[in-house]
Amino acid sequence: MNGAMSARAAEAREIDHLARLWHEGWNDAHGKLAPEGLVRARTPELFRSRLTAALDTTRVIGPVGAPLGLCMIKDDELYQLYVARQARGTGAAAALVADAEARLAARGFATAWLACAIGNDRAARFYEKCGWVMAREAVNRLETPAGVFEIAIWRYEKAVRPEQLR
Q: What is the residue-wise DSSP string for 122-135?
């Protein structure tokens, strides 16, 4: 990849590909950190369903039909960020984060936040490199078909107003 990467809207025809990418990325990042029941509940079908519901807030990077990464926003949150294994370290994730920050700022938010699983040190280092600051530990309630899971997270925050990003 080159430095000219730019995010674009996800397309409905990419949902199956993106669901596989998200499922693989989630398992890479959380498979050893999350409770066994949550890992079992995070099926490819569940990711497909969630992606379908959030398609309008999902941006991707990479070729049409075979994107290499995805990013979703939800309210004032950078909600999901996953990049295919082969695209890690290429700048794809940083481009998706910058796009999400701009979208959050355009929605009028001064500060955005994201959840990082406690123990996901690789992600934490990446977020800090992008200027995000660990604000506190918190608990996320994750509702799944298998029940509710309460997961301890690091809550990262960042000022996202355009004048604050300079």
A: HHHHHHHHTT-EEE
What strands lie across the sheet with 69-74, from one edge to the other?
8-9, 58-61, 69-74, 77-83, 111-117, 147-159, 133-144
Distance from first CA to last CA of the chain, Å, rounded?
A: 25
**What tens digit of pLDDT does each residue of 77-112 get?**
999 999 999 999 999 999 999 999 999 999 999 999
CA distance linking residue 30 with residue 66, whole number of Å: 23
Angle, CA of 120, 19 and 73, to the nearest 5°: 65
| CA-wise closest residue to 101 among 43, 33, 157, 160 | 160
Interval 20-44: pLDDT, tens: 999 999 999 999 999 999 999 999 9
Q: How many CB atoms lie within 10 A of CB 131?
A: 14
pTM beyond cutoff 0.85:
yes
97: Cα within 13 Å, side-chain hemisphere: 22
The count of other CB atoms within 10 Å of the CB of residue 17 is: 18
b/e code 82-104 from CB counts within 10 Å (16+ = b): bbbeebeebbbbebbbbbbbebb
